[in-house]
Design a protein that fits this description.
- The chain is built from 4 helices and 12 strands, in the order E-H-E-E-E-H-E-E-E-E-E-E-H-E-E-H.
- The protein is α+β, with helices and mostly antiparallel strands and 217 residues long.
- It has one domain: Jelly Rolls.
- Strands 1-10-7-12-5-4 form a 6-stranded antiparallel sheet. It has a 4-stranded antiparallel sheet with strand order 6-11-8-9.
- The longest helix has 16 residues.
- It is globular and about 40 Å long.
- The N and C termini lie far apart (54 Å).
């Protein structure tokens, strides 16, 4: 297990260890190279739009969603899910077996260069549950993954994510911390990020519906 480092803080802050697990060489160099090449060539990458300050703007990255057919990436996303590829499904199973978690979808992000980014946010959709576990694989260019405390922005934490690394976010992280990939003033090559997730909303709705039916009939 690699020791996590802290940057840009006025005083020492130890990041809670129950919120993150980090494995720098989770994929070998050969595995990571092959997967990156396959995804660049075969994924139907899209640049989507999002609402910001009452305007629709293009997201500064390309994305794609793979997983079980009945689940979409977000509540607003009505497009059909891309079915699991053998490579993505095998990687999902490998993470599940080693870390004892479960996923039914993966969001892929392609950061094409230093101008692509994702702003400060928390993965707080109700469909992810209250304490979601999200497993993040990085391929290609090393980019800093920044955290800040939701209610105390001076508490900042930054972790470089190199080629083949795995970061697992869990516990109350999404409740109390925001994260981002910032733009850079330094020239950057392509980076692909895979975030494996478990969507539970429809399962919950199905259970409630079944209970109501049992009460009626």
């Amino acid at each position: 297990m690699t020791q996590l480092s802290l940057f840009d803080t006025e005083e020492f802050y130890e990041f809670p260890k129950d919120l993150l697990e980090y494995r720098e060489g989770f994929l070998s160099r050969e595995e990571a190279d092959l997967l990156k090449s396959q995804l660049l060539e075969t994924v139907p990458w899209e640049q989507r739009t999002q609402k910001m300050y009452d305007k629709m703007v293009l997201t500064p990255r390309l994305t794609a969603w793979y997983g079980d057919s009945k689940y979409n990436n977000s509540e607003e996303d009505k497009k059909p899910t891309n079915p699991w590829t053998p490579e993505l499904f095998s990687l999902k199973q490998r993470i599940e077996k080693e870390f004892g978690c479960q996923f039914n979808g993966v969001l892929l992000n392609l950061y094409r260069n230093q101008n692509d980014s994702v702003a400060w946010h928390r993965d707080k959709e109700s469909r992810y549950g209250k304490r979601p576990v999200i497993a993040s694989i990085s391929l290609g260019q090393t980019r800093n993954f920044d955290f800040r405390k939701k209610d105390h922005h001076q508490s900042k934490y930054s972790l470089p994510l190199p080629h083949g690394s795995l970061l697992i976010m869990k516990g109350d992280l999404q409740e109390n911390w925001e994260h981002r990939i910032a733009k850079s003033n330094t020239s950057m090559k392509e980076r692909i990020n895979l975030t494996f997730r478990l969507i539970i909303e429809k399962v919950i709705i199905s259970i409630v519906f079944d209970v109501k039916l049992s009460l009626i009939y």
